[in-house]
Amino acid sequence: MIRDAMNAKPVLDLFKTKLSVINLGLESFAANLVREGANAVHVDWRTPAGGNAKAIAALDAIEAGTAVDVEKANAEAVRRILAAEPTVVGIGLALDVVPGMARDLILHAGPPVTWGKMCGPMRGAVIGGIMYEGLAGNPEEAAALAASGKIRFDPCHHHDSVGPMAGVMTASMPVWIVENKAFGNKAYCTLNEGLGKVLRYGAYSGEVLDKLRWMRDELAPILAAALKLHGPIDMKSLIAQVLQMGDEGHNRNRAGTSIIIRELAPHLVMLDYPKDKLSKALAFMNANDHFFLNLTMPSAKCSVDAAAGIEGSTIITTMARNGTEFGIKLSGLPGRWFTGPAGVVDGLYLPGFGPEHAARDIGDSVITETSGIGGFAMAAAPAIVKFVGGSPKDAIDVTMRMYEICDAESLSYRIPVLDFRGTPTGIDVRKVVETGILPAINTGIAHKDPGVGMVGAGLVKPPENAFRDALVAFAEKYARK
Questions:
Q1: Which residue from 9, 68, 205, 412 has the least number of CB within 10 angstroms?
Q2: Does the predicted model carry a pTM greater than 0.85?
Q3: What's the CA gap between 368 and 402, in Å, rounded?
């Protein structure tokens, strides 16, 4: 009894002194203590890899030792991304400039997908692309041709290209040519059609196809001639500027589009074209805030492609979605896709539409996040929240979380509100899996049915299993047995 009383005294003293608590687990426990007057510090601790046994084993195996120096490999991958010099060097027809392009080939966004598994927007875009090429006279004929096996499908990424949303690229579409001057590799992307009912959102009406033909026959030649007078455009410099002006390079491109107009306008007016055609070209760019997106995407693509194929690197060099699956590629496993179900976008909808109308996450535009802009640079673009939802603080919080899964900070792309800190760059799959922090993606929302078009925009989380599967495969190849 005496011993019990002696032991009880320190316990009783707890109720007489002011508590100072370190809290692990639910943050609400710490918040409740603070409300009661106690000192409490919450530690943001998570179970590594979400408690997934295979992923934890892979992390442990890599930590124990690999056949290649992972840190050295990642440093080289990051060096190449940061040293990239994306430069617009021309405009050409896809058939003439895109590697492996053919008249019976249609390129699409995301990892590989067959006609039978394509989502509604991608099917709509394929139907429109077939009609645009004159291979079918109506949607029914186009759908039958797409299903016949006479049309081949391949990811844009397999042909050094990227495409927003459905990402459809056909032989006679004009494309931007962007060269990474530091390493000599190139990337390609179609010209942006604008918002609303457009091909990339799966719309294929006569109005949509007429605009595409005008872009091919008038807009592209005018822009190509102006670009020739201007000379190559340093996209790294422009992207750095637009981050200072409130863009993030993915879903907000108002500043970027304005800058590209300023770059080209003095040369456009010097062209020997009728004034009404020049005016129409300028008016089209001016009315299309997303015109710049189709330049940031190939700029990001050729930047991160330079880091692909480095033995032993865990840096993610590709993220993409096809509306059915989300897929990633690692630098150290360049030939493999790791996929999971495409996510449902949480966002804001246009009048008359809601979540029940939405397709799943789709598009190659997440290449911007892979390169360190887009959702990773949301802190630079607080106004983006009016487009995708949330608050300006949310935009800053998103960027701050992304630093935890990246190996570096950009030397060129800087964020004013963060005291000009470089954007988080070089996503390390080890950090994604270990922390459970998934890459932040902001995106447009397409209608789930073909032929309708855009219905909103928002934020989406990629599937965790794609990152875990990639990590496990990496460990299987590189960890010492």
A1: 9
A2: yes
A3: 14
